[in-house]
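sry for the spam today, last one i promise. struct tokens for design, 487 residues
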């Protein structure tokens, strides 16, 4: 990395020093004579437990044989802290990032090409191709999937059954989830309820304020059948007619129910990861979320009758949208080869049975499924370490070949729908733009206007596009000085 580039990155990141105060210290304990791989990861709770269990399994098997010890370190704001550590010359050996970080980290020369560390073809052949391509930038592999996830519609079958007659009167089938956005809106109208004072008590579906319980506010172009980028340039283009039309549809929600009423209802909703989650509390009959919803249901509302289906689209034909957590090796890592050994083990280690896995790692009460199923599958359920990680976290498998055992015993009973969206439906994912987060912030501000006001959608998005074009031009100029092409 050249000096001007380091200086520029330092200037960009200096405002984030408060977030990065107290970067995790290296643990000095561990086996003498072992190569230590310091692994920073973003997860907490049951997801961190699952990752630690898989790390333990490596340390007690291949790690012990090859004298490699992986130290799992939970790190909040891992993407920011990793950049600071890389600039400071003391990065971890392995870092768990979000997919959206890949292009920006590569453009900043912050993560290494895995092809420069070792031969990657054996791993690439095992990864489902859409996931693999999302880990590449300028045709080079810079990361591998750790836990992918597709976005689906979780719907309350009990409420649908309770209002079956009204749903049929609206031309809907109460025994299945809405397939089109028109059906979604009709079902929402039937299932929404106001109290005696006229205030909203329940909504069938609510697109939601950006950053609220519905994290995927930015995916409306996908369900509308569009894309975020201009096909000829690869740049973000929010002034496309499909995007404008998609957000007109969103705006109709607050128009029809009343801006003040909707915002008051939103403000009354509980936290996502708590028992009063609005879907679990039945204040929302349908939500757009990922497979982690299964953990909340299992923990707080195992009695709730929930269906999982493709999220509705304009055409009624399913579209799979995926995002994923990924593993990358920072530039300047002290033990990149040992880190790659761990990654390779995740994918190509011999499958382990539940019994073998339990002998190496404590069983996780948060992730276990019915004991009768465990006992029945004791000898039959054999999964590779990467499958175990995804299974324990309730997410999709990243492997090109989906094992029957993974699906049949999965703790998320909606995994069939999630895997269908990843493997059988047309798929979409985030664009590989190095300044995606910056552009998304501008887009988010525009979405906020759409959600809380009767603004002119076309004019609002054209103004947003001007700001995006300006930000993109500055990014292109900056990357040109670095010798990096955009996007």
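last one done:
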């Amino acid at each position: 990395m050249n000096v001007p580039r380091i200086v520029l990155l330092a200037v960009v990141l200096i405002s984030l020093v408060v977030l990065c105060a107290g970067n995790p210290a290296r643990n000095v304990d561990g086996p003498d004579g072992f190569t230590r791989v310091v692994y920073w990861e973003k997860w907490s709770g049951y997801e961190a437990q699952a990752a630690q269990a898989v790390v333990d399994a490596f340390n007690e098997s291949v790690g012990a044989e090859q004298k490699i010890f992986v130290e799992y370190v939970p790190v909040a704001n891992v993407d920011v802290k990793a950049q600071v550590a890389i600039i400071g010359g003391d990065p971890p050996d392995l870092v768990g990032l979000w997919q959206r970080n890949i292009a920006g980290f590569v453009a900043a020369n912050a993560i290494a090409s895995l092809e420069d560390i070792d031969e990657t073809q054996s791993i690439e052949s095992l990864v489902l191709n859409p996931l693999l391509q999302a880990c590449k930038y300028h045709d080079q592999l810079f990361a591998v999937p750790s836990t992918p996830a597709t976005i689906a519609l979780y719907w309350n079958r009990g409420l649908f059954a309770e209002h079956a007659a009204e749903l049929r009167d609206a031309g809907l089938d109460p025994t299945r989830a809405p397939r089109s956005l028109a059906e979604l809106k009709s079902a929402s109208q039937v299932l929404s309820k106001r109290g005696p004072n006229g205030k909203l008590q329940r909504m069938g579906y609510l697109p939601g304020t950006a950053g609220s319980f519905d994290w995927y506010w930015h995916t409306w172009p996908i369900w509308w059948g569009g894309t975020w980028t201009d096909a000829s340039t690869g740049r973000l283009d929010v002034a496309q007619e499909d995007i404008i039309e998609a957000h007109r549809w969103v705006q109709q929600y607050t128009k029809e129910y009343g801006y003040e009423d909707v915002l008051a209802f939103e403000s009354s909703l509980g936290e996502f990861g708590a028992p009063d989650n609005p879907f679990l509390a039945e204040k929302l009959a349908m939500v757009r979320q990922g497979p982690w919803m299964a953990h909340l249901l299992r923990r707080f509302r195992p009695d709730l009758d929930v269906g999982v289906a493709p999220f509705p689209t304009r055409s009624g034909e399913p579209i799979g949208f995926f995002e994923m957590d990924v593993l990358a090796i920072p530039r300047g890592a002290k033990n990149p080869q040992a880190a790659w050994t761990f990654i390779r083990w995740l994918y190509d280690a011999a499958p382990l049975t539940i019994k073998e896995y339990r002998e190496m790692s404590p069983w996780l009460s948060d992730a276990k499924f019915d004991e009768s199923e465990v006992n029945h599958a004791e000898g039959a359920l054999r999964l590779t370490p990467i499958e175990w990680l995804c299974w324990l976290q309730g997410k999709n498998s990243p492997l090109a070949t989906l094992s029957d055992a993974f699906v049949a015993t999965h703790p998320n009973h909606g995994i069939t729908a999630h895997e269908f969206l990843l493997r059988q439906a047309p798929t979409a994912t985030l664009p590989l733009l190095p300044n995606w987060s910056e552009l998304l912030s501008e887009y988010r501000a525009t979405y906020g206007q759409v959600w809380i006001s009767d603004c002119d959608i076309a004019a609002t998005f054209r103004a947003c596009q001007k700001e995006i074009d300006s930000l993109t031009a500055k990014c292109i100029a900056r990357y040109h000085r670095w010798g990096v092409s955009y996007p």
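The first strand starts at residue 35 and ends at 41. ok im logging off now
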